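Protocol step 4 of 6: structure prediction from sequence.
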Amino acid sequence: MKSLYKSISAILICCMFLFNSCSKDDSQITYDLTGNWKVAYYIENGIKITKTKENTWLDINNGDITASFAEPQNGGVGSISGIKVTNSYSGEFRAQTNGEISIGQVFQTEANEPEWTELYKISEAEYYEIKNSKLHIYYNGRKNVIVLEKIRPF
């Protein structure tokens, strides 16, 4: 009987090990920011700020702020472009494999913007990571975050 319990215990332990090793870890951090993204929300001083009809203009570009990161070339330099609800912008970024990022001067058109876009401080980016399928761009000593989600090409 003891050998039966030992066998069953061994089988259960193996099954638990196999089950845990095959499960997907959604919190895994990656650094491939290439692609098209849109702002999902911001975290400013520990407060989560989301898009609402009160802080943006949903009838223009659905009130979305978008970013398209081209694949970095030699030295980790790539281009960034997108739309801040009513204005287009573009510039260059330098990304490191450890998540450090710097964005050079961003050129944009100058038309009126809703309140929602004031929080999009992409040129202040210091660090980035992708976790749970969202791109987190940190600035202000990692106190503030722009959180973006992947979208299809625009």
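Step 5 (inspection) to follow. The chain has a mean pLDDT of 84.
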